[in-house]
Amino acid sequence: VKVEVKKRVGNGDAYIPIDDDDVKKADFDLKMRETFERISKLPIEEKAAFALAMRDAGNERFREADYRAALEMYAQSVCGLDGAQINAKLKIALPILTNMAFCFLELGKPTQALTLCDEALNLDPQCAKAHFRRGKALALLDRYNEAKLALDQARICAPQDNIPATKELHKLAATTQRVKQIRTQQRLNFSKALRQGKVYHDKSSTPPW
Predict the structure, then answer these.
(1) Which ranges in 64-195 belong to alpha helices (H)?
(2) pTM of model > 0.85
(3) Rounded to 5 degrees, what are φ and ψ at 10?
(4) What pLDDT does 23 receive?
(5) Which long-range contacts (CB under 8 A, 24 or more apart) does 174-178 make?
(6) What's the burial of 91, exposed, middle or buried (CB within 10 Å: 0-12/13-18/19+)?
(7) Residue 16 forms beta bridges with which residues?
(8) Which of 134, 137, 131 is nearest to 153 (CA)?
(9) Which of 102-116, 155-169, 173-187 holds the top average pLDDT?
């Protein structure tokens, strides 16, 4: 007997097979719930010690470029910060969130990276690293105007260390220019095909660019 597990997508009428990422996410979510339930009953001091231990473990995996393992350690550390004072969150959670964003970027998951950068900026709106990684995530999501704003903000927040943001802005400008050229060529090709009668022009439809 073959059993295929599927997930519901869209409005709930369609189902597609789950993949390895779905399984990993389910395992990760379950582990986080178990961790949170386990440490939620601990005194504040023990929670803080747990958070620091998981942060250090995450940093070790991060230095080894084991980004999936680092994410797991960092997420558990954040669980341990429940109930912590804002100063502790700024000192511990802020670098964890920006490191997690980096991990997700390296794993090709810009949407998750963007969410973590936004959470980091809720803690510290002047965090240059969060603005910088937010800009990279937005660029990967083809949200170029927003990416430029984020990278510009990174340079403003860290004027003494703006070389990475400046380099990323140069890359973004080149990418934006290429996209404009491609879209211009698409418009020309579409207009040519329309004149030659190769395309039925429905004014209510959106051209392919």
Answers:
(1) 67-80, 86-88, 94-106, 110-123, 128-140, 144-157, 163-195
(2) no
(3) 65, -130
(4) 42
(5) 175/139, 175/144, 176/144
(6) exposed
(7) 7
(8) 131
(9) 102-116
